[in-house]
């Protein structure tokens, strides 16, 4: 064994200044630079290759059509590319001054959204069965209508079409019912209804369900197609939800005794073989996953990562394993915290490769290297 002791750090001054061989540098907590990211008093300001953010002000540059400036949540303006007739791309500018007026090409999963004096009026498009469906609303959430004939005067009456089914409500949530057409990807044709909070029933080709005092008590039986010549029925029982929940189908088996215990087995649809298995205790305080074990917030262990919070953390990247003491931040892999704050509470670091182990104590004031036999 060979070791050497270093009394000064060449590129590091305590936790405050650090310069790496890869060009990264930090003057904590004021500034840091790593690859294409620059932080100033993080989380106050961050700049990346194609975006920057200062508190609630942000700019995001798009490769195809300029960018977007945002003063969250009140103002935004930008440009996007839209495909027009003839297959040509057209650059379109958009603006928004919430809640008075605005447009946006893609906002919160909605396409071509627009509004005026929200919630007085808004409209948007969503993808449905290979085409875009337009929805318009007045005095949200009370009145809406859609291209497919869906409409609603909530909570008095609502009629919505979803894929190959039609859903209705009257005096929501007290009366709901639905009609289903044949569909091999769902439970088939049939109907359902519920008088909340007393009773509900689902009657479809491959599903029968009874709900008593929904959602607390229910029993559901499913009848999927035959798999390898064997009929695979399914069962789900809630007595009462959320305290006892049992489910067994061709694709998974789940038992939950909330908040004490849960076990989930995911299976292949083709032959029913177990693919993944998860066990939890104390809701999500203890989780035993296929490749990882967690005891929130103290313990995480997998093939390439280990944490005993708030004392020790180890992670492996290829043939290199890095460890540090202390590890106060409870979340895993937040690069901005590592760049700007973690050094203040990291008193010891260790890096091991197939040849040697490097040690750093008190922010590099003391360093030594140990060669492996």
What class do helices, strands and sheet pairing give? mainly beta
The general outline is extended
Indicate the proportion of strand residues: over 45%
Question: What is the helix fraction of residues, given as a range?
Answer: under 10%
Distance between the termini: 6 Å
Instruction: Output mean pLDDT.
Output: 89
For the largest beta-sheet, the strand count, sense and barrel status come to: 39 strands, antiparallel
Rg calc = 29 Å
Unreliable stretches (pLDDT < 50, length at least 5) are: 1-10
Helix and strand arrangement:
Layout: E1 3-6, E2 12-13, E3 17-19, E4 25-27, E5 31-34, E6 37-40, E7 45-47, E8 51-54, E9 57-61, E10 67-71, E11 75-83, E12 89-97, E13 101-107, E14 110-116, E15 121-128, E16 131-138, E17 143-146, E18 151-153, E19 157-162, E20 165-170, E21 175-180, E22 190-195, E23 199-204, E24 207-212, E25 217-222, E26 234-238, E27 244-248, E28 252-257, E29 261-267, E30 274-281, E31 286-288, E32 292-295, E33 299-302, E34 305-308, E35 312-317, E36 320-325, H1 335-340, E37 348-352, E38 356-361, E39 366-371
Antiparallel strand pairs: 1-39, 2-3, 3-4, 4-5, 5-6, 6-7, 7-8, 8-9, 9-10, 10-11, 11-12, 12-13, 13-14, 14-15, 15-16, 16-17, 17-18, 18-19, 19-20, 20-21, 21-22, 22-23, 23-24, 24-25, 25-26, 26-27, 27-28, 28-29, 29-30, 30-31, 31-32, 32-33, 33-34, 34-35, 35-36, 36-37, 37-38, 38-39
